[in-house]
Amino acid sequence: MEILSAPSSRFLPFENSKLQSKQPGIAPPEKWLQFLSATSSSSSLLTPLRSSSSSSKPSFCFTTRAASATEVAASESSAELSSSAESDVLNALSQIIDPDFGKDIVSCGFVKDLEIDEGQGKVSFRLELTTPACPIKDLFEQQANEVVAGLPWVKNVSVTMSAQPAKPMYAGVLPPGLQTVSNIVAVSSCKGGVGKSTVAVNLAYTLAGMGARVGIFDADVYGPSLPTMVSPENRLLMMNPENRSIIPTEYMGVKLVSYGFAGQGRAIMRGPMVSGVINQLLTTTEWGELDYLIIDMPPGTGDIQITLCQVVPLTAAVIVTTPQKLSFIDVAKGVRMFSKLKVPCVAVVENLHHFDAGGYRYYPFGRGSGSQIVEKLGIPHLFDLPIRPTVSPLTNPFRNYFNSNTLRYILRMS
User: Fold this and answer.
1) Are residues 203 and 291 in the same domain?
2) Number of domains within the chain
3) How far apart are CA 95 and CA 111, in angstroms?
4) d(CA 19, CA 69)
5) Domain residue limits at 343
6) Shortest CA distance to 255 belongs to which of 225, 280, 230, 283?
7) Going by DSSP bridges, is the β-strand pair 290-296/181-188 parallel, antiparallel, or unpaired?
8) What pTM was computed for the model?
9) How far from 64 is each of 61, 238, 254, CA to CA, in Å?
């Protein structure tokens, strides 16, 4: 095997030999010279090399450009400066800690598309959060601007906020209408009249107001509440004639499905039929891409509730109760049902907790029921909602009554 090796000299001589000129398809050195002279840049040097022999025919060689070493050094210096500037920005951003993950936003992988122009002092990047409705995204944006602007060479900071693409759960085994839904959250009380539907609607519209794509499914066929709480222009569900799927109605950007929008009012039917109706409404609806589908569960722990938990994989459940001891007994049954069905209960909302008047706070229904649920049933978070006229669904059903602490644990469940 013939081994090709490079000459030891930095010059590449082309000898004008008779052998080379006679080989077919190979141009003589004079032709190479003409071609190289025509195509080389003005900074390239192509000079004749005088042979020590008496022959008057020169050999030609390439000489290395003197500027190349300087350019390499400049390039390396520029790369070092760029690396140093990037390190400065990332170190500054690593001061911002996500309170739920307990890590900085750089370690969490939130910083994307970092671009730096150190000469003009410009820095731009994108913060990709886990959910479009992150309750502290505004705080992250403010802190990111402040820490990067604090670098001595930075004159302009541009921060763009975004969210990770939806990650549908069990897309391969779900009905087509639910395959692009990321999180399905059940709002349950296991007892009627405690404000479950009010909490569900307020939660849904709070999430939508924070940028999430949200839908509400009213699973109470015997007494649907959604038609009373919202007033969409189209109050009837439509059917797609091609695939016979249900097209949800919509109000203020939130998709809505309820038996009350089916033109039948309240149902008068036996349990097995109700389970079939709920299954059809939930699984054949064209929900589209949703970050959160809020299910307003019917009261109780019977066939309908079990069917809902088995038809779709619920991300989590939020339990709604009131301070009375009777509510605590019913809620305990519901929590045990979700536990057996492997659905995590992430929060308890104690509705009608208190009201303020004349500078004093009153507890008309007593105290301690919600805390007992947390302590005895192991639910990690308890939130209370006061008695306020503005919370009434007949006045304003979807004002933001959920602060960032309330939503934080509901949003980070998946």
Assistant:
1) yes
2) 3
3) 13
4) 37
5) 176-411
6) 230
7) parallel
8) 0.67
9) 10, 77, 69
